[in-house]
Amino acid sequence: MSDPVTPMPRDGGWAAYTDHARRLAALLQNERSRAEQQATASRSGQAALDQITHRLATQRQHLHQLAATLRLPEPHIGGIAPSPVPDPAEALRRAVAAADAADTAAEHAHRQAAQPPLLPGLTPLARNALVYTAAATLGTLASLLMFAVSPDADLGRIPWQLVPWSLCGLPALAFFAGYLTISLVGQPRIGGGGTRSARAGGVICFVGMPILWFIFIAATRG
Question: What is the pTM (predicted TM-score) of this model?
Answer without folding.
Answer: 0.60
